Amino acid sequence: MGPELDKRLHAYRDDLADESLRGKVEAGRFVEGVTRRVVPHFTDMLREPRDGAGLDTQVLHGHDVMVFDQADGWAWVQRLGDGYVGYVRAEHLGDADVTCTHMVSAQRTFLYPGPDLKFPRCGYRSMGSKLVVVDHAETRGTRYAILDTGEAIIDRHLIAIGDWRDDYVAVAEQFLQVPYLWGGDTGFGIDCSGLIFLSNMLCGKTVLRDSDMQSTSIGSVVETSDYQDLQRGDLIFWKGHSGIVIDHENLLHANGNTMDTTIEPIAEAVERIAYLYAMPTLARRP
What fold, for 168-285? Predict the structure, then answer.
């Protein structure tokens, strides 16, 4: 066997592992995964199959996972795309036999039982959620997308999959004042690396989920002495934290200090976080 693989990105346990890992890890048995799709507005991915276990990330509506095991109401899965592994509620998974056509581009939006904003809302969707649009309708000048479920959603809150945004920083700026949530990946709550993960998703780019993964995989290292020579879109990483440079002086980050997504002068953020933890470890340019 080779070096130990990161269990956050490779589906293996002592008793069970992904068939593709045969020969790379030791496990009691190996299985082929089954593709399933998240049905509610999102589902929490936990590190253990029990309520109250640590939240690692969230899987958005319409996104697919590979299911390797299911027991006691929990499914052990790997998210397609970035490959994150964890446990989700089995009841939150459904069929994945229809190709999604659109993605929510607004921070948050509502579902309606028909194409009229005066109808009572019947659901919610976060930015990044995938949907199947089958038709369009217009009521009093507002255009709606009609989903395969029969529900309606504001058309301007969607983009066609493939019609990606071209500035991930502008996407991230939409999350100003969204509450901080450890492991959060939605417009209802987000953390530092989730902000980078989700804003890149709207640009058609898949990046890894956690800040330590991002710090070794996104772009290239930028040599800097005082962080004032960085440019828009560069990333600053601390051990356990990350932020997005929006101009030569300011940083956008979801953080536990203000408990939301905020803009903070780079110099102040570096000084404050260094006082509590440590200096930044590096900067990277996507």
Answer: endopeptidase fold (from Nostoc punctiforme) (3.90.1720)
Domain segments of the chain: what residues? Answer: 17-94, 102-160, 168-285
Q: Which residues of 125-134 are buried (b: 16+ CB within 10 A; e: fewer)?
A: bbbbbbbebe
Half-sphere exposure of 217 (CA within 13 A, CB side): 14
The verdict on pTM exceeding 0.85 is yes
First-to-final CA distance of the chain: 33
How many Cβ atoms from other residues are within 10 Å of residue 221's Cβ? 12
What is the β-pairing status of strands 74-79 and 133-139?
unpaired
CA dihedral sign, ordered 201, 207, 212, 218: negative
Token pair, residue 54, equals: 């640590």
SS3 state at 167? coil
Tens of pLDDT along 205-221? Answer: 999 999 999 999 999 99
What are 183's two structure tokens?
């492991």
Measure Cα distances from 127 to 26, 28, 145, 194, 212 in Å. 38, 39, 16, 12, 24
| Spacing of C-alpha 157 from chain mean position | 18
* Rounded Cα–Cα distance for residues 193 and 190 (Å): 8
Amino acid at 231: Q
Among candidate residues 108, 106, 92, 94, the one with its CA nearest the CA of residue 45: 92
- pLDDT tens, position by position, 252-282: 999 999 999 999 999 999 999 988 888 888 9
Domain spanning 102-160, CATH class: mainly beta
Neighbour count for residue 163 (Cβ, 10 Å): 11
Q: Which amino acid is at 243?
A: G
Q: Which of left, alpha, beta for 43 (phi over 0: left; psi -120 to 50: alpha)? A: beta
